[in-house]
Design a protein that fits this description.
The protein is of the alpha+beta class. The protein has helices at about 5-10, 20-25, 50-55, 65-75, 100, 110-120, 145-150, 160-170, 180-190, 195-200, 215-225, 320-335, 345-350, 350-355, 360-370, 390-415, 420-435, 435-450, and strands spanning about 30, 40, 80, 85, 90-95, 125-130, 135-140, 175-180, 200-205, 230-240, 250-255, 265, 295-300, 315-320, 335-340. Helix content is about 40%, strand content about 20%. InterPro entries: Co_F420_Hydgase/DH_bsu_N, FRHB/FDHB/HCAR-like, FrhB_FdhB_C.
Length: about 450
């Protein structure tokens, strides 16, 4: 029996990437569970495929991110503990066209994909966009730049690569595929044993990732905007609000009649705080990669003090592929990109919360899994219980928030009462945010000191 069937699926560590279903379609099926997460299920009687375990990003049977990056990008490329390999890092935005206006942050993701298509560097782009079936978002394949521009910004919604992988296998050509860290790792390990995919997937464009959400995240935000879960037909998670900070994301929901809600800041919506871990996949709490270390390029939000006041947004970019580096440098030279070279430490600072959660926080979670006798995948972080009690409490409460959010929201939908969800979650939020009096005083003095500088 495969590790996927024996450990990953029963342990709730499937991320729904679709590698197993692609490799053994009679054995594995990807579908939504009761909480709105895409999960694999296995037919015990069907024939398996030995490559399933090495392709799955949560078995530990395949190569880890450090090994893959070293093999793909070479020993001589500089590396950083948290950023991984890098040719160059940048911060900035797209100055040409409307990429920045209609894209996430600085618009670099949309710009890169359209540049690859219009410049003939690839034949197809595989990216997440609004779904044309029942799902709000899904991976779709585009062969023209205009369609890419019309595609989604960041979509906090469950997706799978299963169908896209089937189409790539069936349709000759070269592809650029967007991927969060675990999907990128899967693609790299999968292409080690699949020559067709290896020859066709020319670039992996990484999306720096906090964590994946179930369908409940979209439903919860939409509900607060006046669109009930069963009437939700669309949602934009990344509207830009003038005169607000860059990380103040505007949310707009669309009902089945096509009516748009008013835009509200995610900060005003219950569950919009990423640190609360609402509707998070359990697998995400066993990931140690934030900056998509196996991708040819990684793009994320430049949430740094110097850039926070610009509501239009800026991107952090980590380039590892020489051809992509040349494309970016040419666009910088002719004024299409307003990018400034940056140190890897700047990239780390922009994603510091996620990096802490997937390093010191992961060490605590691995320790707790070990102590409970639970199976867990081997990570590049070792189990540890050495953090101070306050930090350990934060990470352990986030696990409680993660698990309880799925249950409480499901019950809220059954009752038709969003307030049930709020009431169930508030005690855990209070527990997460609790600070002993000495810490409150220290925090107050620190803030006053910063104001004086």
């Amino acid at each position: 029996m495969s590790i996927v069937e024996e450990k990953v699926i029963p342990g709730g560590l499937c991320i729904g990437c679709g590698a197993c279903a692609y490799l053994a379609p009679d054995k594995y099926h990807i579908g939504f569970d009761e909480f709105g997460m895409l999960q694999a299920s296995a037919d015990k009687q069907a024939q398996d495929n030995d490559a399933v375990d090495t392709a799955c990003p949560f078995t530990s049977a395949g190569k880890d991110e450090t090994t893959l990056a070293r093999e793909i990008f070479g020993e001589s490329m500089p590396g950083h503990e948290y950023v991984g390999k890098y040719l160059e890092c940048y911060i900035g935005n797209v100055s040409a066209g409307q990429f920045r206006e209609f894209g996430s942050s600085g618009g670099m993701g949309k710009w890169l994909l359209t540049e690859l298509l219009s410049g003939g560097h690839v034949d197809y782009v595989v990216q997440v966009a609004a779904g044309d079936k029942a799902e709000l978002y899904e991976y779709r394949i585009f062969d023209n730049a205009e369609a890419v521009i019309d595609g989604s910004k960041s979509a906090y919604y469950p997706v799978t690569l299963y169908e896209a992988l089937q189409r790539i296998k069936a349709q000759p050509g070269t592809y650029a595929v967007t991927a969060v860290p675990c999907f990128a790792k899967m693609l790299r390990n999968l292409t080690e044993t699949d020559d067709v995919l290896k020859n066709r997937i020319k670039y992996v464009a990484g999306i720096i990732c906090g964590h994946l959400k179930s369908t409940a995240f979209a439903e919860a935000l939409g509900w607060q905007l006046g669109v009930e879960p069963n009437d939700l037909a669309g949602i934009d998670f990344r509207g830009k609000i003038p005169n607000r900070q860059a990380n103040d994301k505007g949310v707009i929901a669309t009902d089945r009649s096509g009516k748009l809600s008013q835009m509200r800041s995610s900060k005003e919506l219950f569950g919009g705080n990423w640190g609360y871990n609402f509707f998070k996949y359990k697998a995400c709490d066993y990931c140690d990669d934030v900056i998509v270390e196996t991708a040819d390029i990684a793009i994320g939000d430049a949430w740094l003090p110097a850039y926070m006041k610009d509501h239009k947004g800026n991107s952090v970019v980590v380039v590892r592929n020489k051809a992509l580096h040349d494309i970016i440098e040419a666009a910088r030279a002719d004024g299409r990109l307003d990018l400034t070279p940056a140190a890897p430490e700047d990239v780390v600072e922009s994603q510091l919360g996620g990096i802490r959660h997937r390093n010191e926080g992961l060490a605590v979670r691995l320790h707790d899994s070990q102590a409970a006798g639970e199976w867990y995948p081997k990570k590049r972080v070792e189990p540890s219980d050495e953090l101070n009690d306050a930090r350990k409490s934060i990470y352990r409460t986030r696990v409680e928030l993660r698990d309880q959010s799925h249950i409480a929201f499901s019950e809220a939908k059954r009752r038709g009462d969003f307030e049930h969800f709020r009431n169930e979650m508030n005690p855990l939020i209070k527990k997460l945010n609790y600070k002993p009096f000495p810490r409150k005083v220290a925090g107050f003095l620190y803030r006053k000191f910063k104001e004086m500088l």
